[in-house]
Structure formats: structure tokens, C-alpha cells
């Protein structure tokens, strides 16, 4: 008699367990979720100790510092191009960088903002070159005018931007002088008037801003030229033409008023007025004598 072979079919419970195991979400949970949970729980338990956290932080900082201080990341010196000696000292002061320093510790954008804030700096670019050189390329503002305000003497560029303070006018006698409140805001017009006055450059002592709206030209040992608010260059050209024809600026005048283009006026000095009165008196007396002689 042959033995009875067992039924190979799984039981209902085994069948359901197999079907449950074949479900993707269950397989993913068992294979990935459970190990991940165990690792996260273990790590959380390990990191809950403050001493462990401190040790890890110190280790990370040490690794980071060892990388940042590698020779290829160190900046050893600065090369400054386009700046005068005085400006170079100001740039070094505002940057405040002590070399050598890691390139990771240099905030180039912040340094650019600091240097660009100097009055004498027009543009600035910074680059770290191979070999650990911080290259700073500057475009320095060029002084074009000396501005005498109410309480300071300053050098301005052609756009009226402040270049820097001045101790004395004698330090830059090569630059024209402008005086008065708001004169810096009209620097471009002032330079145009100065170019127009080149034929009498040796006579021009400076320009005075009046009411922050118009200019007076100060002539050395000569009359003051009062220019209009509009077309000041045209008015000055007319005065120069009169001077070329009749030496107007060499006469005994206090001022030449061009504020009304339709009616220029001249004001004589007191001595000139006295001479005119004396001449008129003399002419009147001569006329009376002639009339008296004719009657006789």
C-alpha cells in the first residue's frame, strides 16, 4: 500500500500572508521603512546627548577649518591698481583685511561696497588671482573744481561729486574755484562757463552761485559779471565780445548786469561816477560862460 502524499497547496493563512507580502507598499515598508526607522531612532538617541552634539560640532568645524586653510585657498597679499598713494591708504583702512587670510573668510561683495563708499572712488572691482593675490582695480575720480561752501573747502569732479576735502585753496591753484550753496549741483554748467571764459582766464577769480539758480563771474580787479539764470553761456559770450572790441572789463565798472538779456546795464565805480559828475559840471560851466560871453 502506497503512502499518502501531502497536499502542496498552501493553507488559507499562508496564502493570505503571501499575497500581503507581495503588496508593493508592504514590501517597501518592511525593506526600507523599518530599517530607516531603526537607524533614525538610533541616531536620535545617540544625538540626544549634548556631549555628543558638541563633539560632532567641533569635529565638523575642525574639518571645515582644515579645508579653508589649505594653501590653495589662502590669500597672502593685495595688489591695488589705479589709485594714488593717499587713496591706497584709505582703501586699505576701510577694507581692514589682515593677510594671510582664507578666501572663504573674504566677502568680496561687502569689501566692494566699503571701498565704493569712498568719495574718491568712481568704480571698483575685486578678484582673487592665482597665487593668493587679492587684486583691487580702481577708477579714481579726477578733481576738476574747488568748491567753497559755507563751512568747507572740497575738491569736486566734473559731475559735482565730492572727491575729497582740501586744507587750503593754495594746494590746487590749477583748478577753478566755485563758491556758494548749490554750486556743486551745477558743476557741469560751471565748467562750461569756465571753458567759455578761456580768453580772459587770467582775469577770472572764480564763479559764485547766487540763489542756487544762477552764476556771477568774479573778475580780478575788474567788474563782477551778473549772468542770467538761462543761457548764461550766451550772455558771457556777449560780454567777452564787448571786451574784445572795447576792453570793457578794463574800465572802471562795479558790475556788468546781464540778468535781463534785453537790457544789459553797467554800474560805474564811485571814482568813475565822480569823474563823470565833474566832467558834466565842467561842461555846464563852460557852456554858461560861453552863453554869458555871447550876451555881452
Question: How would you sum up this structure in a few lines?
Answer:
The protein is an alpha/beta fold and 296 residues long. It contains 8 helices and 14 strands.
| Residue-averaged pLDDT | 83
Instruction: Enter the CATH topology name of the domain at 145-272.
Output: Rossmann fold
Q: SSE string, helix = H, strand = E? A: HHHEEHEHEEEEEEHEEEHEEH
The parts where pLDDT drops under 50 for at least 5 residues are: none
Q: Which strand order spans the largest sheet, edge to edge or round the barrel?
A: 8-7-6-9-10-11-12-13-14
The rounded distance between the terminal residues' Cα atoms is 194 Å
Describe the SSE topology.
Blueprint: H1 12-21, H2 24-47, H3 50-68, E1 74-75, E2 77-81, H4 85-95, E3 101-102, H5 108-116, E4 121-129, E5 133-140, E6 145-148, E7 153-156, E8 162-165, E9 177-179, H6 187-196, E10 204-210, E11 214-219, E12 224-226, H7 232-246, E13 253-257, E14 265-268, H8 270-295
Parallel strand pairs: 2-5, 6-9, 9-10, 12-13
Antiparallel strand pairs: 1-3, 4-5, 6-7, 7-8, 10-11, 11-12, 13-14
Amino acid at each position: 500500500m502506497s503512502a499518502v502524499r501531502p497536499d502542496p497547496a498552501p493553507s488559507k493563512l499562508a496564502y493570505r500572508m503571501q499575497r500581503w507580502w507581495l503588496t508593493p507598499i508592504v514590501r517597501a515598508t518592511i525593506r526600507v521603512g523599518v530599517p530607516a526607522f531603526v537607524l533614525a531612532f538610533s541616531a536620535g538617541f545617540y544625538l540626544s546627548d549634548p556631549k555628543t552634539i558638541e563633539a560632532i560640532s567641533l569635529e565638523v568645524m575642525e574639518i571645515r577649518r582644515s579645508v579653508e586653510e589649505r594653501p590653495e585657498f589662502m590669500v597672502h597679499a593685495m595688489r591695488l591698481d589705479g589709485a594714488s598713494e593717499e587713496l591706497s591708504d584709505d582703501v586699505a583702512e576701510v577694507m581692514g583685511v589682515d593677510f594671510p587670510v582664507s578666501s572663504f573668510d573674504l566677502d568680496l561683495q561687502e569689501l566692494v561696497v566699503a571701498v565704493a563708499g569712498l568719495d574718491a572712488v568712481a568704480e571698483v572691482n575685486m578678484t582673487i588671482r592665482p597665487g593668493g593675490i587679492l587684486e583691487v582695480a580702481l577708477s579714481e575720480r579726477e578733481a576738476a573744481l574747488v568748491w567753497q561752501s559755507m563751512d568747507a573747502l572740497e575738491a569736486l569732479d566734473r559731475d559735482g561729486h565730492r572727491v575729497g576735502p582740501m586744507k587750503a585753496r593754495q594746494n590746487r591753484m590749477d583748478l577753478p574755484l566755485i563758491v556758494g550753496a548749490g554750486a556743486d549741483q551745477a558743476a557741469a554748467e560751471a565748467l562750461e562757463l569756465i571753458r567759455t571764459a578761456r580768453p580772459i582766464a587770467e582775469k577770472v577769480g572764480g564763479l559764485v552761485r547766487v540763489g542756487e539758480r544762477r552764476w556771477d563771474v568774479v573778475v580780478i580787479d575788474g567788474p563782477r559779471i551778473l549772468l542770467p539764470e538761462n543761457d548764461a553761456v550766451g550772455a558771457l559770450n556777449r560780454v567777452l565780445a564787448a571786451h574784445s572790441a572795447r576792453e570793457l572789463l578794463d574800465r572802471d565798472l562795479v558790475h556788468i548786469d546781464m540778468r535781463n538779456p534785453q537790457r544789459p546795464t553797467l554800474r560805474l565805480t564811485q571814482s568813475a561816477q565822480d569823474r563823470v559828475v565833474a566832467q558834466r559840471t565842467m561842461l555846464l560851466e563852460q557852456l554858461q560862460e560861453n552863453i554869458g560871453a555871447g550876451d555881452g
